[in-house]
Model the fold of this input.
Amino acid sequence: MRVSRRGFLGGVAAGAATSVAAPAAAAQQGSGAGGLVGMRTDREWQEFLDAQDPVWKRLPRTWYEGPFLGNGLLGSIVYQEPGRNALRFTVHHSEVQDHRPEFGSDWGVARLPVGNLLLHPVGAITGADLRLDLWNAEITGTLSTDKGAIRLRALVHNDRTLLVVTARADAGERNFRWEYVPSPAVSPRIVREDPPDDLEPNPAPVTTKEPDGTTVVVQSLVAGGQTASAHRERAHGDDRTFCLAVTHSHPGTDAEGRARTAVRKASALPVSSLLRTHRDWWHAFYRKSFVSLPDGMLQSFYWLQLYKLASAAREHAPVMATTGPWLEPTPWPAVWWNLNVQLEYWPVHGSNHLELDAIPRTLAENTDILIGALKPEYRADSAGLRRSTDAQCEDNGSVAVPGGSGDPEVGNLPWALHNVWLTYRHTMDRGLLEDILYPLLRRSTSYYLHFLYEGDDGRLHLPKTFSPEYGSAPDCNYDLALLRWSCATLLDTVELLDVEDELAPKWQEVMDRLTDYPVDANGFMIGAGAPFAKSHRHYSHMLAVYPLYLVNWEQPEQRDLIERSLKHWIGFEGALRGYSFSGAASLSAMMGRGDDSLTYLRELVARFVQPNTMYYEAGPVIETPLSAAQSLHDMLCTSWGDTIRIFPAVPGEWRDVTLHDFRTQGAFLVSAVRRGGRTRWVRVRSLAGEPCRVRHSLGGRVTVAGIGGPAPDWRDLGDGVVELDLPQGAEAVIHPAGRRPELRIAPVPVSAPADRWGLPELPQSGTVTQVDLTGHFDNDGITTEMYYGDGDFDGTGRTYPMAQLPQTGQTSDNGIGFAFTNGSEGTNNNVVAGGQDISVPQGAYGKLHVLGAGDTGNVTVPATLRYADGTTASTPLRLTGWLASGPAYDETAAVTTSQIHTRNGPLGTKAAIFHQVVEVDATRELTGITLAAPTGGTARAHVFALSLEAVGG
Done:
């Protein structure tokens, strides 16, 4: 079955491109007649975004720390090459994958790595000072060595899919060199397990150097097709510019020619020309909407998420995989449809960036695959989507049959179609509704209809289906909510399209007779007979509340159920993860509880978000920070149902907020300003001429005035709601009765300042200096609840549970700050004392603080302190065993867990990491510490972190 793309590609994409200049045009239109002013010049935008830029005052070491670049296809993250004196620019491309679906999404159609570009300085790297310039989408800064410095500017070009790095070196570093290192074309899943025995390895890449200086690397694939990268360096004055392109083709082999051509064309242009076209796109991108908050940390976080979205997603690019374009070793090397994709794309709507939305195109182009995902007997009228696929929805196997064996996960396609419906509602593009949503939603709903049955109670019921990541149950709330939403949406759709559909009576019957959501004293259950009884990160059982809003706070009779369900779910610690808290923030926003939403977002940041705003769960994943951007949208403006709600859940401490050209359902662009804790005015611009109802949050009597034309007809419906008759293209402002306010768009004062994102100088807490142990890590003592076969802390396969350990790179105890590496699956995170010589920043210290534990028992490490004058001192370092009931050597239990992991699953045994303090001779300057292996026993000492406290600390 072929589904036409004309509605989406001809309407939505073109409309999105046209609206790039809409904010500026609207401001200019009314500049002398009460129109919007402000945020119209490059200078205004650059000054604002400069304040949001993350900075790195030391060298990033991992995916989770480094600055990142991308254009939806090519992606690069910058950090130190592990174990080497080099700077890595990762080189990966979202189209690069294997093409053997018979081996599944983990191996057969997995994303494949491409390679890394390494900058090798002449001297030893001593530091870095880097900045991610959001306005220009570039990384700038300096790499310092003991021989000099290298100044850098790097970008992934928006239009040409090129990594372009320009370097200017001091005299001592003029002989630095570039090295491009191709990666083996094997699934990143290898971090967890070996490939299937019958999966033939892809051949090694072939590198050729051409007479004009272009180097081409061709990675052929067993399944046909190829990945090609081409690169070339050129000098101009004191600058050396390195251009690298990546292309992929399947089943054809034209990638090599395209990569070579891309580099040659770019190398023939002046760098200034490349910069101009690249920056033009990004400057237009930012101008499409504007949000300013008084919370410095969350304001910068929000703009970094918009930058991240535009770096990772484009309408024409593959739908985002779990890592975006920045591939790393991960158990999740594909596209996941049971939450990840949906969360990743939610922010495109309110932010007015529909040019980033790849979901409608992806589903439309791959309808045949969605039909083929079902068993043959259901393909005539139905379609489905498997949990994980490649970017073309391809995988092996079939969507499970409800009521059958295993875990029948059937809600992925209707939930993805909810995103398509959101795009329709934010554009009101009839072609999108007619050509994509209606035919596919009809098919996904028909799959449910095959299995509905009438129970003894006369109601319609579903057999056993799977609530994502929790378990299976009949009348699963996840599927009941999606089925109810699907039928209601289809009934609305056929009415809008004036279509007589033979299934409409059946959809109405479902609406009338479908069983109620199973609930108990704690709120929503998983399904009939299946209470929500264990900690769980996913809110699939509450989908009816969010994001579907079928059960919502504006239904007074449902408030107690919603409140009980949220409290019970988010109060179940143990398996909660980052998106649990973004979900709780959005649920709280729907309840009008902005203070609670802010608390959840701050907890998300404090517990989970990494220095560059990335995130991990066993491996790199990007959906959670993006979903937190949507949580901010939900706090500032929502439009579910038939009403636009202005500032529905603004925290009490946010006295000032600016919102501009926020896109809502019904295809409106909304602007609003809050000052001194009060909404001052609301402007609405209609893009489609739809009915317009606004809950404006203005106090007292209001009036409505036109912008660039007469005032529209309007009605005050009471309870803070007005209804406007706005034709397409018209604008109006709602404001307190009396004098018309100045409609100025501007950043608000930051009342809660925050450090920049990125990496500060080695973190210090007063007089405490943290020691970098990452180069010495040799043990993995941490696992996730998703895979217990990874680490081994005590020699028997037992480990600490990741979810209960610090995850943001930092922790503290008794006022002492420590660097704490949790990391992703397959990475080491602690040092087993065995003779390691650890250098420390030279200085006079009075105390050494240690985070560590013994494994099979208490241990004593015969440590040696080394001083600058050449002397040493022996000191015993005593650590309690991790499962002890309490400290044995006057430590404190700095980190505690309620369980440990075994190879067979969690065990309800408490564990701890202890904070030990060792005296140091402050009259001498310490330079290093040697951690010798314990003697006289089998227990080993594991050190997770070291910090040094200066004299007087």
Remarks:
- The domain at 762-950 is CATH 2.60.120 (Jelly Rolls).
- Residues 1-33 have pLDDT under 50 and may be disordered.
- The first strand starts at residue 55 and ends at 56.
